[in-house]
Every structure is written in C-alpha cells, then in structure tokens.
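Work Package 4 report. The design task specified in the project plan requires that, given a folded chain encoded as structure tokens, an amino acid be chosen for each position. We show below one input record used in the internal validation round.
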C-alpha cells in the first residue's frame, strides 16, 4: 500500500442530492444520539462504496492512502460521480461497506468518506472501522431448538422496529413473509423470535445476519432475538399468523441484479 502526504479536504453542499448515507449522517449530527450514530454505521455497512485506488492487479487492490496526523486513511464514495469529481479517471474498486471495513481493519486504516462535496463527508477513525468490521463479520450463533408455543410480541422497542424496517427490505426476495412473536421453545427457554416463512433455500444465513445486524445497530443493550425458518405448512406457522406481528418482505426487482456483498471488489 502507498501513502500520499496531501491531506484530503472536507467541505459540504453536494449538488447531487441526498443519499441514504447523507440522510443518516445528518440525522446523527442533528440529534447527537448514540442510536442515530449506530444507525448511520448500519447504513455504511450496507452501502455500495467506490474505493479510490492507486493500482489494481487481479483481485489485489492498492488503495490510495492519505496520512492525517499520523493515521492513514483510504478514501471511498457512495456515488461514482462523487469519486469522479474528487479524482476523475482514477482506478476504483466497488464493494460493500461491510467488505471494505474488513479490508481496512486488517491494515489498521481509517476511512475518508465522501470527501469534499457531500453532507456525509467525514473521517472515520481506525477504531470505528475495526468495530464495524467486528460487528458485521461475526456469524450469528446457531441453536438447535424448536418452537413450542407462540404468543403476541407485546410492546417492542421502537429502535428495534426501526432497525428491522431499514434492514429487511435489503433482503427482498429471500422469504415470503416473517412474524415477530414471543415464543416458548422445546427446551423451556422463552424469548422473542422472528420466524421467516418459505425462505429461499440457501438464504437462511443472509436473513439471520440481517436480523443480527438490525439488533446490533438498534443500540439495544443485551438484546436478543432468535430467528427461525418454517414452511407455510408447518403447524407453528398458523399460530404465528394468529399471534405474531406480520412483516412482509418485498419481492426482488427482476431488473435489479443481485450481488454478494462479501464478493471480491469490482474493478474499474
């Protein structure tokens, strides 16, 4: 990796309109609340980012690095137009914020995000990047237990419902619907469960990770939400439909290609 002694500049007032990262950042700046800062980091993990490169060879990329007060930062943008405005014609790699955080954390790097012309322009230090990589890189734990009894979910924290509302549309097409309910399991334990009905085969890990990250970025302390997968014909599915809070997942847009967020970066 290489380094550039010139300091990137942060200004505001993008003419390109607000992106989801802009909106989440402005909300966090307005309220100063930890929950809104976490919501911004959740948006960052899901965003498709364009990383500024010095060079690329095969699947090996060399980010263009800037040194600021002894800390090295890579630069990425959530719109290709923003990167083009900053460094027109430079090579780039496109990857998810989750994947980028993992790559930067491994090198102890920070992230300069949307520098120069965006409301979300900021320097994110290596500690925050490392935390994001850890939170999004841990697979949810798997427990072998069955649902025995179902009850209405009761009062749920608004932060959790907001986080699920933001996260689950990103899982479009992976399941028909879901139900949020209280449950008693066959081992006698109790808790809340989000049960997905008729999940696409092979989508279970992605759905479980989406729920896990929604819980993390909701800011709830010591929160736990189990995830279950059932076919519509399962006897418990009828009880979920009677007592659970229904969550409909949108259908996948046929014209929109799917992309594995953990796949190698796309180069340009």
């Amino acid at each position: 990796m290489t380094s550039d002694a010139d300091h990137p500049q942060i200004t505001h007032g993008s003419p390109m309109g607000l992106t989801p990262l802009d909106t989440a950042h402005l909300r966090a700046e307005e309220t100063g609340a930890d929950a809104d800062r976490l919501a911004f980091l959740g948006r960052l993990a899901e965003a498709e980012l364009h990383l500024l490169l010095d060079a690329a060879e095969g699947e090996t990329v060399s980010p263009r690095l800037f040194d600021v007060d002894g800390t090295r930062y890579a630069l990425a943008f959530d719109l290709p137009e923003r990167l083009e405005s900053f460094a027109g014609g430079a090579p780039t790699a496109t990857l998810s914020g989750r994947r980028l955080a993992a790559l930067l954390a491994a090198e102890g790097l920070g992230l300069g995000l949307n520098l120069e012309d965006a409301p979300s322009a900021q320097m994110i230090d290596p500690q925050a990047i490392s935390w994001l990589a850890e939170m999004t890189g841990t697979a949810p734990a798997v427990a072998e237990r069955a649902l025995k009894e179902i009850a209405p979910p009761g009062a749920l924290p608004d932060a959790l419902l907001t986080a699920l509302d933001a996260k689950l549309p990103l899982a479009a097409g992976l399941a028909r619907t879901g139900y949020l309910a209280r449950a008693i399991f066959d081992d006698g334990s109790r808790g809340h469960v989000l049960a997905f009905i008729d999940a696409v085969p092979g989508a279970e890990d992605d759905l479980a990770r989406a729920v896990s990250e929604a819980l993390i970025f909701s800011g709830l302390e010591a929160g736990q939400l189990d995830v279950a997968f059932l076919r519509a014909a399962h006897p418990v599915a009828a009880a979920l439909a009677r007592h659970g809070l229904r969550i409909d997942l949108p259908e996948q847009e046929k014209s929109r290609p799917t992309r594995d967020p953990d796949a190698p970066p796309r180069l340009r």
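The mean pLDDT is 85. Validation will be extended to a larger panel in the next phase.
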